[in-house]
Amino acid sequence: MTKYLTKKQAAEILNVTPRTIDHLRTNCGLPSYLLDRAVRIPEDGLREWLEARTSSGVESHRKPAKPMKDF
C-alpha cells in the first residue's frame, strides 16, 4: 500500500521548504493529490519523480554554497 506524505514531510525529505513543494507540484510535475483539501504526495511517486530528474542530468536550481570565511 502506498504511503502518502504531507507537504512538510516531502519538504524534509528533499531538504526544501513546503512552499518549494508547491512550486514543484505546479511547475515541475511532482505528483500529488488533494485529499479533503490537504495536499498529499505519494512516497512512491516522489521517489520515481526524483530518480527521473536526477538520472536525466537535470541539475539543481540552487546556487552552490559559498565557502565559509575564516574568523
What does it look like?
- With 71 residues, the chain is of the alpha+beta class.
- It has one domain (4-55).
- 44% of the residues lie in helices and 14% in strands.
- The protein has helices spanning 7-14, 18-27, 43-55, and strands at 4-5, 33-35, 38-42.
- A three-stranded antiparallel sheet has the order 1-3-2.
- Strand 2 (33-35) and strand 3 (38-42) form a beta hairpin.
- Helix 1 packs across helix 2 (18-27).
- It starts with a strand and ends in a 16-residue tail after the last helix.
- 11% of the residues are buried.
- The mean pLDDT is 85.
Write the H/E string, N to C.
EHHEEH
How many structural domains in the coordinates? 1
Biggest sheet details = 3 strands, antiparallel
Question: Gyration radius, to the nearest Å?
Answer: 14 Å
Strand order of the largest sheet: 1-3-2
- What is the number of helical segments per DSSP (H or I, 4+ residues)? 3
The share of residues in extended strands comes to: 5-15%
What is the tally of beta strands?
A: 3
Helix content: 40-55%
Spatial gap, N to C terminus: 52 Å
Uncertain spans: none
